[in-house]
Every structure is written in C-alpha cells, then in structure tokens.
Amino acid sequence: MANLQPHVGARGVMFLAVSYTLTFVGLIFVGLRAHGASRTKNGRWRWDFIWIILATAFLIPAVAISTVAVLSGMGSHVKTLTFPEVFKTAHYNYIALFVGQPALNFVKFSVIALLLSVQGPDAKKRKYFLWFLGALPMLGSIIQTILTFTSCVPMERLWKPIIPGECPRSAVSFDWNRWQGVQHGVIDITLALWPISIVWNLNTSKSVKFGFCVLMAVGIIPGLASFIRVTQLNQLKSTKDVTWDMPLFSVWTMVEAWLGIILSSIPPLRPLFLRVVYGIRGTNLGSSKTRPSGGISRMTGNHIQGIRTVEEGGEKSSVVDKGDVMINAISVSDSPKQDAELSNGGIMVSHAYTIEEDSKDH
C-alpha cells in the first residue's frame, strides 16, 4: 500500500479523521447499550437495540471500503491522479455509499421502536404513522439503488465514463437521490420532535417534560446533516475536481449515520448512567441532599441502605414518605403487559428509582 500513500490528500485525511472518530465513539455507545440497555426485563432483546446493531453492522464495512477509496485517491486533486486511480476511487466510493445506506434506515427504525415503547400500546394510529415514517425512506433507498445501478449501460460506465455506452437515467437517479436526502432530513427532525406530542399532556413538572424532549430532540442534528449532504450532492454534480470534492459528500453521510447511532443511544442509556452515579449500595450519604438529573426523585437525611431500579426491585411507582426520605418514583417496565398497566393515557416514563431506608435507629 506504500505506493498509494502520496494520494492521501488533505480532504482524504479529513474524511478519515472524522469517520474514525465517529466510529470509535459510536462503538462505545453501542457497547454501553449492549451492557445496560439491550434487553427487556424478561430477557428479550430490545428492538431499538437490534436495529442499532444492524445499522452498525453496515456502517463498519462502509467505513472500511471508504478507507480504500481514500487510499486510491478520494480527497486528492484529479490532476495528481491517473485515470485508473480516478475510476478506482469512484468505484469504491459508490460501493461504500450503498453498503452504508441501509444504516440510515435502521437508525430510524431504532428511534421508532424506542418511541413506540414510550408512548404505549394503545395509540395504534400513531404507531402506524411512525412505521410509515420508517418504511418511506427504506422504500426510497431500494428505489435509489435500482436507479443508480441501472442508470448507465453498461453499469461500469457509472464510475468509468470514458468507456462506450450511455447513461439515459442519470438525471432521474440524481433527482431521486436529492429527494431522498431531503426526505431523510425531514423524517429525522419529525422523529426528534415527536416526544413533544407524547409528554404534552403528561401530569408532571415542566422540567421533566423539557428534559425528556431535549433527550430525544438531539436527533435533529442528523437531520441537519442530511440537508447539508444534499447541498454537497449538488456541488458534486457540477464539480470539475470530482476526487477532491467527493469526501465532502461522503463525510456528511458518515456524520448523519454515526450521529444517528450516538445521539439515539442517549435516552436509553440515561438509566445506566443514573444507576452508576446513584446506584452504589451501602453508601452513607449522611445529611446530604441529592437530586438526580431530570428531577425524578429527591432524597434527604440518614443512612440509605441501597438504591435500585424498579426493574431490579420489581416494584410499581409510588410516592413514599418515610421520615427523612421522600421518593417521587415513576416506574416503567419493558414488559408489554406492565406497559399497559402503568400507562397513563398512552404516556409512559421510564427507569426511575426506589430507595430503601434502613429501619434501624442511628
């Protein structure tokens, strides 16, 4: 590979730095989900986690193939490359984009599965609409793949335009690709704002409502990345230095996909972070006061024997006042049966904590 090193241009280095950083952070979040937010109470795999695993399984080879494209010349100026190197770069870039494309859809499926678990089983119309939002870009991606690889005859002319042939459907393929980018952005933003409709009528404090919405609204960022990707696609169509401008389009595809995985992992991982911070058993808190982020519960006073999740203790939510200890606990289980029992008009909140007070006098 040493003979390929001179072709790693500045934008190729940028692409690799961004892609590898996002991949590293993304795998950390996926690993954390595998450890603390991958199964329901009855031991079954959570669907939001399954979709994230599938998205990751497509993204990793996409990053690997993109690396080969960079080593072949993506990110370098055309004038520094030979024709075979330019064609090889374009070929690998096409493969990488279409290998990674399903990941964009699987991330949306993961967010939808998470939203369905929160809004409860009774909102059937909302459930069908959410899955419609997921199916629409998936169908569009299938059409995009067919249009792209049938746009030129022979197909090889797609990345090697000097060979004899024609590309009668290239304009249609380009327009559909642009429409797909806009559609992905709109759907990402819609899913990010969807929790507002879930918690709007929830009988709880505004701070809790706001916190829940913010946790989910970070999904707007991948949507914005999708819109930027569309602008780069327009630039790529008119460029005269295709290998130099190619990474600007490809990197935003990686940003959209990996940020979707990372940011959609924040809400389901929040209970794990709370359990790590507040779940140490046998801790003497003295007369200190502590309030977990999000305003879920409040504790004051004396020795606390242990803090555990409702999923671990198997207890329902309640407001308990035991002397110096006051708990405002809101619980949920991943079990569909318990989901129905604990729902409040189709509204559910998850993973609050119960506290056991030592009955002995101190």
From TrEMBL:
Protein location: Membrane
Domain Rhodopsin: 39-273
Keyword Transmembrane: yes
Keyword flag Transmembrane: yes
Entry-linked InterPro entries: Rhodopsin_dom_fungi, SAT4-like
GO CC terms in record: membrane
Pfam family, one: Fung_rhodopsin
Transmembrane regions listed in the UniProt entry: 12-30, 50-74, 94-116, 128-149, 182-203, 210-228, 248-266
Keyword field: Membrane, Transmembrane, Transmembrane helix
Topology versus the membrane: Multi-pass membrane protein
Family classification: Belongs to the SAT4 family.
Protein name per its UniProtKB record: Rhodopsin domain-containing protein
